Structure formats: C-alpha cells, structure tokens
Amino acid sequence: xxxxxxxxxxxxxxxxxxxILLTYIDLLHCQLFIIPFKAPSECGVEEFFDISSLSCVRCxxxxxxxxxxxxxxxxxxxxxxxxxxxxxTCQQCPTDKPAVTKDGFGCIRCPGSLxxxxxxxxxxxxxxxxxxxxxxxxVEARCETCNGNSPAFSVANSNEDRCKRxxxxxxxxxxxxxxxxxxxxxxxxxxxxxxxxxxPSVNYAQLKFSVQSAWFVKNLYSSAAACLVFSNLxxxxxxxxxxxxxxxxxxxxxxxxxxxxxxxxxxxxxASSTQDISYWRPNLPWLYxxxxxxxxxxVLQTDPVPIGFSFRGKKKNTDIKLHAAVxxxxxxxxxxxxxxxxxxxxxxxxxxxxxxxxxxGTAYHESCDLSVAxxxxxxxxxxxxxxxxELGGEENRKLLPLPQLVYNQQYNGRFINQEGMKxxxxxxxxFLVDMLSGREKESSLPxxxxxxxxxxxxxxxxxxxxxxxxFPPLMTVTYKDVPITDINKQTVSTTFAVEYEMDQxxxxxxxxxxxxxxxxxxxxxxxxxxxxxxxxIASPLIDVETMLRFLLFYAGDLANVxxxxxxxxxxxxxxFYKAQQFVSVLLPLxxxxxxxxxxxxCAFALKAVQFLHKLILQxxxxxxxxxxxxxxxxxxxTVQATGETKRDPSPVSIWRTYxxxxxxxxxxxxxxxxxxxQIMAVLFFLEVLGFSNLALRDPWPTLQRxxxxxxxxxxxxxxxxxAATLWLCIGLLQVIFFTVFHEHFVxxxxxQFVDLCSISNISVLLLxxxxxxxxxxxxxxxxxxxxxxxxxxxxxxxxxESLCGQRxxxxxxxxxxxxxxxxNRLRSQYDRIREPLSxxxxxxxxxxxxxxxxxDQNIRAYHTMNHFLGSIIDHAHPDMDYIVKDKLVFERVIxxxxxxxxxxxxxxxxxxxxxxxxxxxxxxATLLIFDTLFFCVVDxxxxxxxxxxxxxxxxxxxxxxxxxxxxxxxxVNKTLVDERFLI
Length: 983
Fold this sequence. Notes:
Elements: H1 2-12, H2 14-30, E1 47-50, E2 55-58, E3 63-65, E4 72-74, E5 78-81, E6 89-92, E7 99-100, E8 107-108, E9 126-131, E10 137-145, E11 154-156, E12 163-165, E13 182-184, E14 187-189, E15 201-204, E16 209-212, H3 214-230, H4 233-245, H5 257-267, H6 295-301, E17 322-327, E18 333-339, H7 351-355, E19 364-371, H8 372-378, E20 384-390, E21 399-401, E22 404-406, E23 429-431, E24 433-434, E25 448-460, E26 474-483, E27 491-501, H9 505-536, H10 544-579, H11 594-618, E28 622-627, E29 634-638, E30 645-649, H12 655-666, H13 675-688, H14 716-746, H15 749-760, E31 762-767, E32 772-776, H16 789-800, E33 817-821, H17 824-840, H18 854-873, E34 882-885, H19 889-894, E35 905-909, H20 924-942, H21 945-975
Parallel strand pairs: 22-26, 25-27, 34-35
Antiparallel strand pairs: 1-2, 3-4, 5-6, 7-8, 9-10, 11-12, 13-14, 15-16, 17-18, 17-20, 19-27, 20-21, 20-23, 24-25, 25-26, 28-31, 29-30, 31-32, 32-33, 33-35
C-alpha cells in the first residue's frame, strides 16, 4: 500500500517540485556574495574584530575589547575562568579578594593600593609576589624589596616580578648610581671618565645646518663612555656607526661622534693592533687609515693585489668577489654576506644585471630615481658595511680590506677628499640610507635624510703587468642630504658604477710623439707643395697668398696625420683590449678620452678645410675644348651687290663640342665607390650583424647580446676605431673592385672620355694653376669627325685593324694625356685672348663699342682661342713651342717638377690620367677620409650610427649638387659653351 501511494504523491507534486528546484538552482547562479567592509578600528568598546568572519562581534558579559582589538578580556575586577570551550567566561572577584592577579586567572588581596586595571601595586623597586615557590596562589600578595647591597646586588626586572643582579657597572657598593657618578644608557659611569658635554648634533654640510639628533642624544655619551671605560664591543661599534653617520668628519677640538671616537682611538695608541693593522685598535671598529700626507697613494698604488685577472684560457678569472661584514645601528654584528646583489645597489634591477657589476672589465653604470617613501619603508634604520675583497684560497681564505673615499668627509671644515690625492683621508665603513640620525624626536619623521647618491668602485691596473694584476680597488661614496618636505612626492637619484683604469701617460706620450714626428713631416711636405705651387704659378715672390696656400696645404696634411694617429689608436685599443688573455691593458675612462675626441675634432675640421679648398680649385679650373675639325668643302652663296657667286667654307658642327662638354659635366662627380652602397654596408655590419657591440666597454668580443644581459656604455675610442676602420675597409674594397674589375670589364668613364675626345676630334686643355695643367689629345687620326654613320664605322674599323696612325700626340705613340708646364709667355697670351671676356663682366665704362654684343664677342673669343691653342699643339709658334718628355720617378712621388719651362713648355707623358685630379674621381682618398670623419663625428656626438649615416648621405648629396652646379657654371664661363646645351 505504501509503495502504491508513493508514485501518486510524487506525481501529484511533480510540477511544483520541478519549479522549486529550478528556482533554487537559478538563485545559486544569480546570488552576489557581498559582505560589508569592517576595520578593527570601527568596532565598538564592547566589540572585537573577528578575524574569521571579518566583522565586529560583541564581547560576552563582563568583557571588553582587548588592546589589540582582536579579542576580548575581562573587565576590571573580573577573573578569567578556564572552561572546555573556546569562549571566555568572566567572574567577579569576591570582596575579600578584590584584586586580579597579573595573569588574570586568580583573585587576591593586595598589601597596598590597586592600579586602574584592578591589579596590585608595589612601590618602585619592589617585586610583587603572588604565588609561592610551588605556584600556589597566596591569600594576600606581598611586596618584596630587592637587596641592592652586597652581596646580593639585585634590582627588580622590567616586569617587576622577580629580582635580578644589577648591571656590572653599578657594582661598587650598591646598585644605586649616586652622584658624582653618571647614569647613562642603563650604565653607571664614574665621574671624570668622560665629559658629559658632548655634541649630539649631525652636521649637514650640503644644506649648511645641523640637526640635534634624538638618536645621538640618547646613545652618543653612553656608547662613548662604555667604549672608553668598559671596552664594550657593541658600544664601540655603535660609536663608530655614529661617526660614519656624521660623514667621518671631525676636528681636533670637537666633542661630536668622530671627535669622541678619535679620542678613544688615540688613548689606545700603546695597545697592540688588531690583525697586525696599525690603524685597527683593539675593541674598536676600523674607520680610518690615518691622516699622514700621501698615505692614500701608498695604500692605493704601492702593493698589487696578489691575484691576477684573465679574460679567457684555462686560468680565466673575471669574478670580483667582495664580502661585507654587516652591523646594525646599535653596533651588533649581523652577518657576513657576499656583495653582488642588491646589498650595495639601490636601483631595482634584475639579479643578472646586478651581477654583471662584479665581472672584471665590464664598465658598469646604473642610475635611477627612488621614491623617498619607498626608502622609508625599506630602510627604516641604516645598515653598516665593512667591505673586503676575497683573495682566494680554499682552506685559508684571505680578505683584502676595501679602502673608501667619502666625498662628504670634512677635516677641520675642509672637504679634503674633494682635493688632490695627497690630501685624501681614506676610511672603511659605509651605509646606504640614513633615516635615523636626522630625527629630532624618536617618533617623528626625519628632518633630513642621507642617501648614498653615488657609489663607485675603481680598479687600477698595475703598469706593464702581463698577469692581470691590479692595485687595491677604491670605493668612492658620495652622499646627498635631502630635506624632507613631502615624503610621498620627493625622489632622490642614485648611481652605482664600477670603473677600470690604467696609467695612460705612456699611451699619451706615444700618441703625442707620433703626432709631433708626423706633424713635422707634414710641415716639410706642405712646404714642398707650396714650392711646387709657386713653380706652377710662375711666381718667385713670397707674399700673403703664399702663406695662405701653405696653411691650406698644411691643414690637409695635418688632418691626415690626426686621422692616421686616431684611427691607429682606436684600432689598437679595439684589438688589444678585446683579444687579450691576461689583462694587460684597460680602456681609458670617458674623462681620459676627451683629448682623443679633441684630436678627432681637429682632424675633421682640418680635413673640411682641405676638402673645401679642393672643391674651390675644381670649380675654378681653366678649361677649353680645342676643336680640330676643319671644313671639307665650300658652300656657294650670291653676293647681292655684284650678283657674283662666291664659295665660303662650310661651317664646322658645334655639336661635337657640346657633346664632349656634356660628358665632362657628367663625370665631374663620379667616384670610385658607391656612396649609397657604402652607407648601407656600414650600417649592415654595425647594426644588423652587431659589430657595434665590439665597442662596448667590456672585454667580450661577442656580436650578439641577450636582452636580459647588462649592456654597458660605449667607449668613444672603440666606437671611433670600429666605425672608421669599417668605413675605410669597405671603401677600400669598393675602390679595389672598381679599379680591378669594374673599370676593366664593365665601364671606365675616364678612359671612355679620352676615347670620346679622339672620336669627336676634340682636345681638352685643363689649367689647374696659372702655368700648369693637363692636356688630353683628342685629335682624330682620321682627320674628320663630322661624317655619316657609314664613314664613322669604317674609320673605327680601320683603326682597330691598325690601318691608320695612332692617337698619340707624338707619331707612333698612344699617349694621349699629359701634364703640361707652360711658359709664362704662353700663359700671358692665353690671358690676353680671354681678357675681353673678363672685361665683359666688369664695369660698363671699361667696355668699348666692339664689345657691345656679348654673343659676337663670345664667338670671336672662342675661334681665336681655338686657333691659338691648335697652333701651339702644331708647333706653329716657335717662341711658344713645347717638348714632350717623361717625368722622373721622384718627380711623380713628390708631385713637383724640377725643370722650369723658361723657353719652351713641357708636356709630361701621363698614362695615369691624372687630369682626374680635377674631378671627384681623382680625389677619392680625400673624399673617403672626409666622409669617414663626418660619419664618426656625428656618431660620437649623437651615439647613433643610423643618424650619422643619414646625415652623411645628405652631406654627400649636398656637396655633389654644389660641385655639379658650380662646375657647370665654370664650364660655361671657361669653354664659352652655352649653358642651354648642357643637360
């Protein structure tokens, strides 16, 4: 029956149950779990904060909130009952036992009065006794007086529940420190031990005021007296810490922390030294090395560290192992800890990068801005470090003390460590952040804080070492005084650096010697150039122009000297620093590189002067195209006056001259390298392949660096040596490829221009000086160039089959290019023909009627000059004749002609086509060095190879446009070719 009714019941309620279940499930999915926020301070007097429910819960009967606010305690006059439950039960004490015991679990009568908490009170110095020796609660508490006299010498402890033996400094006759004894820091000092008139102020010299430090007021006298009288180790360390917080500064009459420390130090002069170090007295911390003049140089530069550093090989040693003995501000020794993480580096960095600071040879520098509020939270009290360098040894490990130089240290009011090394005062102990000494009250914010704004560890290489030996490293610490105004908004900057240096005097001497010797040779070479220039302009006088030319020549030669020395120096450091095994050289510091950068600047400035000088010479050269073409027939024309027919020579086509002029105009700025390829190749090696990493201030010759690794700064010397060498190498490879392959198998535009002159029947005369220049003999061996295609092809075929004469100036020779030294008479005639043209651009009063039409004047001048120069080449003027000869080898080397063309001009055979000296093509060395220096100077100033490449490209394009524009104008003026025909 029951089984029969169950389906019926379920069936009857099937729909309602389904709805209820769905509604419940929906509520579970849609419920928001929200609770009200309550803080412990918001709970009432009779409530406590339940850490389980995070809410305020009411205390039970006769209970109140505890001092922590996280539990309940019984009210005054109520004892706690222990039950089997976790809750607290309070019961009122009976009237005959109204007081509650100290533990709160019993009631007792008091021998005297009660305190506000309802507990018994004893007179000061007495001990409250509530239980017997077995722990049984007494009916009435007792107040026992501690016997401060002999033999007990006892006093109440801090809880006043038992007697203890008083401090040893009190035990003479009793535990009372009676006058004239002095009570300080819980110790009793005999009178006259130490003057109580101490100076508890901390001097902030940067801010020019002092602060009465609450910490010094409380601890300075007691620490000094305990150190002096009782040789208390902790007190001596605490006194030393207070001296360190005062920047190790003292004067001979001061009673401040350092003055007291040094008084105690001197009082123990007769005592034996600690660790066989005379500056380390027994029971005292080692704070100073001594004040003898010149002591710093003896400590730092006399005895090398007995270990060697090596960058590679089996004896590789690049780890700098430093250890620190750490003390707290109270003078307690905390621990030995290795230096290498964030214990000396305030800047937040990864452990990998911080570890790089202690890899020998890596120039480490890290700086950041820190919030004062964060420093307040992480450094509430200063920690003090005595630093040592580990010297190795597995069983007997040795430590070398690390001397320190505190820039803020004062000696009798002088910042002695900011002077020369002779006056340095080396010290030993340091801290990072001091938030304590600047407090005028113990519970207040500091008025001033001190932060180590700069920590620098410097290693100096032993001169001429081959085993990587260094002198004892020096740590330089600079502190910054920060007055507190708004702790949440203020920041302070700090840096940590590790530097490596060596004596650069020998390297500087060698550099200066090389500059002196090569500079003297440059003077002689410039004088030789000046003499050659005087010969070529046929002027025996030494005038202002001569001196100016000498200076211009000397500027170029001296630029080459500076360039050679700087590139050689940079390449030397790049190779020998990066490739050395045992450390024998170290990179110059950035300060020591300033002279090197000055040399680079001089090289660039002087090379720019030389480049502009050459540019001006090229755009002012005298040039003329000699047309050898003669008319083949005479054209008939009718004279109108007489009606007769007259035959005149047919005109010679000017298009050949225009064509040659256009070709000359196009080759003015061709070079032996491709500037665009040069820049792209240099950037590819430096930025893509990572060659720029070779210029980093570390010893590792790796091209790729991990993004997690520390990347040191660049060495300007290495950066310059790398960039200049790479630019020159790529440029030289381009020049070799251009001259060896491209000119022989692809295209040689210089030779093509000479061939074009021969085919066009045009010769070119270039005069770079008044009486010196170049001649390209383009006289056609066929006699004519104005012809049709068929005859031209036949002429070329005959020439290829040697069926006609050779192209040379002299019979049976192929030499077409010459250097020419002209006589003064020939040059004067040349100028006389050009004189009307020069007057054309002068004042109108100097022009006569014959010069009224400039176009006619140009035509007459052109024909006159063409006829004159052609007749000279054809030996038609015996008084202005010339001879052809070869130059002596020595003449080619020094660039000067020994013979002066007095009677006859001299044509020197020149198969090297040196007329290209009037083009960019023949000055590739000057252009390459100028581009190199420009690229390097921009990079040194911006530390960006990309920017240097962009600006170098713009500079090249700009000067190319200037050279083309001015060269075109000069070509029009000197050759009398109309500019409209130059395309």
